[in-house]
Amino acid sequence: MSQAKPVRTLNPEVARKIAAGEVIDRPNAIIRELMDNSIDAGASSITVEISAGGIDKIRIIDDGSGMTQEDLQNCARPHATSKIESEIDLMNLSTLGFRGEALASIAAVARLSIQSGGYKMRASITEDHIIEAVTPIKGTIVQSEGLFENFPARRQFLKRPATEGIMCRNTFIEKALARPDIAFRFVTDGETKLDLPAGQSIKERFVMANNYSEGPELFYEFSQSSGGENPEWSFTVVIGEPAVSRTNKKEIFIYANGRRIQEYSLVQAVEYGGQGFFPNGTYPVAAVFVQVRPDLIDFNIHPAKREARFSDISALHHGLSSSIRTFFHQYTYSNFKEDKPADEEREQEFNFTPEIPNTNSESPVTASEPVYEKHISYKTSETKTEALSDFRSKYFGIKSSGLSGNGGAAGNRSSTANYSTTRNLAEQALAAAAGSGGKENEAASALSSETQKIRYIGPCLGTFLLAEKNNSLYIIDQHAAHERILFDRLMSSQGNAPRQPLLIPYKIKTESKTQDNQLEKLKAELNRIGFETEHSSDGLWEIKTIPDRWTGTEYDLRTLLFVKQVEPKEIIRSIAAMTACKAAVKDGYVLDDITATRLVEQAFTLEDPHCPHGRPIYTVISRDKLFELVKRT
């Protein structure tokens, strides 16, 4: 007999525990599965109660359609479900639950009881669907007790009840976010922690459920679809303005057909959409609720349904990033087209219907115009003024790093080379922006009457320029202002940007029909910015020219197009941003009064008062605010 152990069939009890471990690994997994069932049952109110972090007890009460005695008799058996009947149904899922393993898995690792109608069922590893008559109720009450008490090896890996309770709360919030039409209540050890009423807007639910310190007035909501009578996809975005930012991407939530999923490309689309509006190293706070036609998405690829496979995500990626970018462009223009101090009463109105560019007019999927559902029209009361003032202080605040360095030493530099180079750079950019070809009188005449009211005061700390306008003091970052002027100049001329032919063309072999279609859609835009492409019959794409400022490789271009899915204009934007940053005046460069005055004047004519990387060009302090700071009445 061989010393190797023979193959045996596991006994049913061990097999059930192994299968349960794929679905139920901790208390929050029970909440995830049972809340899905309550939502699928059409509940209008769902209450989740936990004790000891859900380890001792989890109880979920809903007012949904309920279960019959026959349903209770079969519900906790392996793969018992009312959601699907055949494999064809897996390609057209309209429910959150569908596999039929949740209740069986819970019964394998805990004591499960379900009460619905006039009956109650108990099931566990030692009890098999014991049915008893009880007082009839509306909806369903599902209870799990003693998680892993019959499985000590797994119970020892649970965290402390307080930590498990936090995970349960996060799962509860995750499920509640996508359904503002349903009332949700979360109770921990007898104390109500969250009570979310039905009938909220998706924005109100998002802010309230996550308990953000920033108020709902700093968040916006808008929608877009792929168009047509039966759109392939649509989405609603809730996103905070640039004052609401985080240092990581953890608070970018992606939902597909009501489920929260991990989808890198859509998180990336949100990041790209906000690029240039958020300071370096920060990301938006946002939630994207996508609805995809069921036959174009597959959720049956992950035990916890955390991932999904899209038939073609490129059009959705483009639509999402474009709509967010358009929104922030309109938002920035609306907020900063008039320079008003933070503490001055002002009226804001948002009613945007910006046009989303379509990269391929022949494509069967045409992006419709997004509808921005947030329409604000208010005059700032004391509360609103405080919120807006807080926003402006955050949005226009100067980082401490901007004041560090060799401010004093730099201010004393008198190198003729540095001074001459800096002056030439600034004058060239300002002259070009004014269309003067370097002539001071023409540059001055091109300035609006509004900018003539500006009074340049002088340099400060080797980095900032001080100016007075509209009874307020402006502190201008000379590098950020110059960088933006250079950037705008580069971007406005990109259609005629110089390009250089390649002795050996880039050769890109597409790996799928999807990539082939994607390049076909992007061909015109790529040609416009300098990447002249040609498609041969064997599926090979040749890039014959590149933009003059392009410093990447063939691999870099392939990565940007197919891995990171960066749009062509974003490629050239990143090149222009890098070029402008390197050419702009630096911290400590000394500008003469004429050049500094022109730089200040041009800063106030910019449509977007931020550098290409999202940093504000200036901060403003009103006269009244200065009086307040020095205790002057």
Description of the molecule:
The chain contains 19 helices and 25 strands. 37% of the residues are buried. The model is unreliable at 338-423 and 432-449 (pLDDT under 50). The strands form seven sheets. A six-stranded mixed sheet has the order 3-4-2-1-5-6. The longest helix has 23 residues, at 314-336.
List keywords for this structure.
about 625 residues; alpha+beta; 6-stranded mixed β-sheet; 19 helices; 25 strands
Task: State the gist of this model.
The chain has 19 helices and 25 strands.
Q: Layout of SSEs?
A:
Layout: H1 12-23, H2 27-40, E1 45-51, E2 57-62, H3 69-74, H4 102-109, E3 111-123, E4 130-145, H5 152-155, H6 161-177, E5 183-188, E6 191-196, H7 202-210, E7 219-225, E8 233-240, E9 245-246, E10 252-256, E11 259-260, H8 264-273, E12 283-284, E13 286-292, E14 297-298, E15 309-310, H9 314-336, E16 347-349, E17 371-372, E18 377-379, H10 382-396, H11 407-411, H12 416-434, H13 440-446, E19 455-460, E20 464-469, E21 472-477, H14 478-492, E22 499-509, H15 513-529, E23 533-535, E24 540-547, H16 554-563, H17 568-583, H18 593-603, E25 618-622, H19 623-629
Parallel strand pairs: 1-5, 10-13
Antiparallel strand pairs: 1-2, 2-4, 3-4, 5-6, 7-8, 7-17, 8-13, 9-12, 10-11, 14-15, 16-18, 19-20, 20-21, 21-25, 22-24, 23-24
Helix pairs in contact: 1-4, 2-6, 8-9, 12-14, 12-18, 14-17, 14-18
